[in-house]
């Protein structure tokens, strides 16, 4: 225990040093207890008190010295100025839906036309394209800003605890060199990137982004509504690879390992230890992950030597060392949750497991397959509950939410976690060799990911599942942990726990007696058979019918149209402004096993049509693309053409007169662009966009991209067949399109506007006059709009 007291004194001293500036003479207070060595016999206690005082005030004086100086040598000294700096990308770029966050470790700054040395890290916000990598040396220019202080979040403090005191929004960037970082770390980040890409290719959304968050810690692309449901149900810790996450994984793996292999040769410990560090490796060895892995390893090492209670002392010592290396981590949520979660696993979980096993023994027979499975469930629940009991005040403090369903939701969702990690990691590894084989493994991961999503969404809909709190008093948190410590002390000293579970029904007690054959069936044969049966049932339910489906996907301010033919072909026209909306909608509309898109049509290279298609080319096997021969110097369009070349995708340049027969009577006719292209218009790119007419029997769809009045007039004068059942209104309902003459020529019965509440009132009035207001559908009001037809009849379904 002396090591525990010294560790606590050191950490407490660092905390004190962050609040007060103390005189250096206080370090001598460590000498005050020493004269008592000659008076009091308990010399060991006196020496310990002296060392604790030295550690306490030593930590207090150490903290100020760990802070960066505020002078010309530091990057943040130049905040709120427009500057040019050089530096290296120091970590793996963090990809979001529309942006990328780069941590640039600065080395030089340009002052008075001369370069001077500087140190510090700036957080850069840049577009998704062009792409940057760890180890790239950049020269950037822009306004260096102090991180803002948000109303409900201390963003400035959050970044400061990570050593970031400056930000820069969308700077001008020049790449001066590549691959200048640490080679081993570059390999780890490359492995992580390949894993992430494989998961994106073999899984639909939102399962792919959820797998990336759970397995790799990449949470930036998880859809916001799903992320909010995780927070509201108290299961957000399942997405954070921290000590809380790893402690639960370690506890579950221990229970599972004991169930599968028994306690002989400590196989269950080595299994958990290996899995945790492999997990840390594929997540990129980020500091929070490494700290969590170290803490989990300390617990497992104590289990290995049979001294679980000593793990708490070792855990405190490890925490003190980590805080000594980087005092700022003391204020970070991952570190705090890591420490407290492991504390809960060490101190809270064992009595809960004892209580659970006694309850099972009283309810069921002492041995048997049913009892064995019940013990696994109770042990897993004890691990989950122990971790949650230890951290829920911090969850309330940092997230502003107290969840009443967190223990139950976590218990029900958690069994899928090891399966997700194992199947997802296996898919990532196999995907480096064979993507088709990885896709099959991905089906298994999809099943468990879908289960977790369903559980979280179900509990999020439960009335009063959580309450939002404006703030939680630190004093209240301290009082909670004091009461918890007293409860743990009382429980650990009791000779016998009361039996809280009444005697169960007699038929449960006379359950199945475990035999070698039953053990084999229950442990190794039954689970795979159940999984295969579920996958086959889901696949059978999602096979194509004999109808044509045309879905106008709700992707915000942009276009994305999915066509699914009776013969099972998938055609995507445009992809909206960013990857997340279109991939999420495709995940809803396409079968989980279908990772092929037969034809992608890009109507024109504007970001609100092209932005999401980059991710589609990266994630799906695209057989062919059709797009117009238009000039655009955007990085997005450069990436589009690069991917077509890199993946060797067959492409066709679109022009009026082309006809595509999709079978089963489904025809696509290309009506625009004309040859030669229209020039000197308000927007040549818009007016030369691809316009197609889709027909099946008596039903037709006119899809008009973003063409304007001049292109509409050309279509009318060239006697194109425009008459259609459904009109996709051009240019998101802009007043530059959808003239009265064009509406008369189309003579549609229904109209769809794909936009984010930007449609022109004049266009709406023209449509209402022609069709009636009840026949106009806007995606921002109705969500995704899906039409289904057999060539004679037409059905309509909206998301909202």
Number of structural domains: 5
Our measurement of the CA-to-CA distance between the termini, rounded to an integer number of angstroms, reads 61 Å
Average pLDDT, to the nearest integer? Answer: 83
Q: Calculate Rg over CA atoms.
A: 31 Å
Helix content bin: 40-55%
Q: Which structural class fits the helix and strand makeup?
A: alpha/beta
How many distinct beta strands? 26
For the largest sheet, list the strands in their spatial order. Answer: 17-16-14-12-11-10-25-26
Helical stretch count? 27
**Shape designation:** globular
Mind summarizing the main beta sheet?
8 strands, mixed
- Percentage of residues in strands: 15-25%
Q: Give unreliable regions as ranges.
A: 495-515
Structural account:
Mean pLDDT is 83; it is low at 495-515. The strands form five sheets. Strands 17-16-14-12-11-10-25-26 form an eight-stranded mixed sheet, with no helix packed on it. Strands 18-19-20-21-22-23-24 form a seven-stranded mixed sheet. Strands 1-3-4-6-5 form a five-stranded mixed barrel. By secondary structure, the protein is an alpha/beta fold. A hairpin with an 8-residue loop joins β10 (548-552) and β11 (561-564). Helices cover 48% and strands 17% of the residues. α7 (243-261) runs antiparallel to α12 (369-399) and α9 packs parallel to α11 (333-363). The chain is built from 27 helices and 26 strands. It folds into five domains: 2-66; 75-181, OB fold (Dihydrolipoamide Acetyltransferase, E2P) (Beta Barrel); 191-492, no CATH class; 514-541; 548-792, Ribonuclease Z/Hydroxyacylglutathione hydrolase-like (Metallo-beta-lactamase, Chain A, 4-Layer Sandwich).
């Amino acid at each position: 225990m002396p090591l525990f007291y010294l560790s606590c004194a050191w950490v407490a001293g660092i905390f004190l040093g962050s609040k007060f500036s103390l005189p250096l003479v206080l370090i001598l207070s460590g000498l005050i207890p020493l004269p008592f060595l000659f008076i009091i016999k308990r010399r060991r206690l006196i020496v310990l008190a002296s060392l604790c005082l030295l550690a306490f005030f030593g930590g207090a004086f150490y903290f100020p010295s760990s802070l960066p100086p505020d002078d010309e040598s530091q990057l943040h000294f130049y905040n709120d100025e427009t500057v040019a700096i050089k530096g290296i990308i120091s970590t793996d770029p963090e990809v979001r839906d529309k942006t990328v966050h780069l941590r640039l470790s600065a080395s030089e700054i340009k002052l008075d036309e001369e370069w001077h040395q500087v140190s510090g890290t700036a957080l850069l916000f840049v577009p998704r394209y062009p792409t940057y990598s760890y180890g790239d040396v950049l020269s950037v220019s822009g306004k260096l800003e102090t991180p803002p202080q948000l109303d409900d979040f201390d963003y400035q403090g959050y970044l400061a605890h990570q050593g970031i005191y400056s930000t820069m929004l969308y700077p001008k960037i020049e790449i001066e060199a590549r691959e200048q970082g640490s080679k081993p770390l570059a390999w780890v980040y490359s492995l992580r990137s390949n894993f992430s890409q494989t998961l994106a290719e073999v899984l639909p959304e939102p399962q792919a982004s959820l797998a990336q968050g759970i397995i790799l810690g990449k949470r930036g692309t998880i859809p916001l509504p799903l992320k909010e449901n995780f927070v509201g149900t108290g299961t957000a810790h399942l997405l954070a690879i921290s000590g809380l996450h790893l402690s639960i994984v370690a506890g579950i793996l221990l229970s599972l390992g004991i169930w599968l292999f028994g306690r002989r040769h400590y196989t269950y410990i080595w299994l958990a230890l290996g899995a945790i560090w492999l997990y840390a490796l594929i997540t990129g060895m980020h500091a929070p992950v490494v700290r969590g892995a170290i803490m989990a390893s300390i617990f497992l090492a104590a289990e290995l030597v049979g001294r679980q209670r000593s793990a708490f002392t070792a855990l405190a010592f490890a925490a003190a060392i980590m805080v000594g290396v980087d005092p700022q981590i003391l204020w970070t949520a991952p570190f705090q949750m890591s420490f407290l979660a492991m504390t809960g696993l060490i101190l809270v979980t064992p009595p809960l497991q004892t209580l659970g096993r006694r309850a099972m023994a009283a309810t069921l027979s002492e041995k048997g397959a049913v009892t064995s499975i019940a013990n696994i469930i109770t042990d897993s629940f004890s691990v989950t509950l122990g971790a949650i009991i230890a951290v829920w005040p911090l969850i309330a403090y940092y997230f502003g939410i107290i969840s009443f369903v967190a223990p139950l939701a976590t218990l029900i969702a958690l069994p899928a976690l090891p399966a997700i990690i194992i199947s997802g990691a296996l898919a990532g590894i196999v995907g480096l060799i064979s993507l088709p084989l990885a896709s099959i493994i991905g089906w298994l991961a999809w099943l468990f990911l879908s289960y977790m999503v369903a559980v979280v969404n179900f509990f999020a809909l439960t009335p009063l599942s959580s309450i939002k709190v404006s703030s939680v008093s630190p004093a209240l948190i301290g009082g909670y942990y004091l009461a918890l410590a007293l409860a743990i002390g009382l429980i650990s000293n009791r000779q016998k726990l009361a039996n809280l579970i009444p005697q169960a029904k007699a038929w449960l007690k006379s359950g199945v007696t475990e035999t070698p054959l039953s053990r084999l069936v229950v442990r190794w044969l039954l689970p795979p058979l159940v999984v295969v049966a579920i996958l086959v049932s889901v696949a059978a339910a999602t096979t194509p019918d004999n109808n044509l489906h045309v879905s106008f996907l709700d992707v915000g301010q942009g276009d994305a149209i999915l066509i699914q033919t009776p013969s099972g072909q998938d055609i995507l026209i445009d992809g909206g402004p960013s990857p997340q909306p279109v991939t999420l909608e495709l995940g809803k509309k396409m079968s989980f096993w279908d990772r092929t898109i037969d034809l992608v049509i890009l109507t024109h290279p504007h970001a609100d049509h092209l932005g999401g298609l980059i991710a589609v080319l990266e994630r799906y096997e695209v057989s062919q693309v059709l797009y117009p021969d238009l000039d655009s110097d955007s990085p997005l369009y450069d990436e589009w053409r690069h991917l077509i070349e890199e993946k060797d995708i067959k492409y066709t340049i679109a022009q009026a007169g082309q006809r595509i027969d999709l079978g089963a009577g489904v025809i696509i006719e290309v009506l625009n662009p004309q040859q030669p292209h229209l020039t000197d218009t308000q927007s040549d790119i818009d007016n030369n966009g691809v316009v197609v007419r889709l027909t099946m029997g008596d039903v037709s769809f006119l899809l008009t991209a973003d063409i304007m009045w001049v292109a509409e007039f050309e279509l009318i004068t060239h006697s194109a067949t425009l008459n259609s059942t459904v009109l996709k209104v051009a240019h998101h309902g802009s007043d530059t399109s959808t003239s009265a003459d064009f509406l008369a020529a189309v003579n549609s019965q229904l109209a769809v506007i794909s936009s984010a509440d930007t449609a022109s009132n004049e266009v709406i009035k023209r449509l209402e006059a022609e069709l009636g207001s009840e026949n106009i559908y806007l995606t921002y009001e109705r969500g995704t709009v899906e039409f289904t037809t057999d060539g004679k009849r037409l059905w309509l379904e909206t998301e909202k």
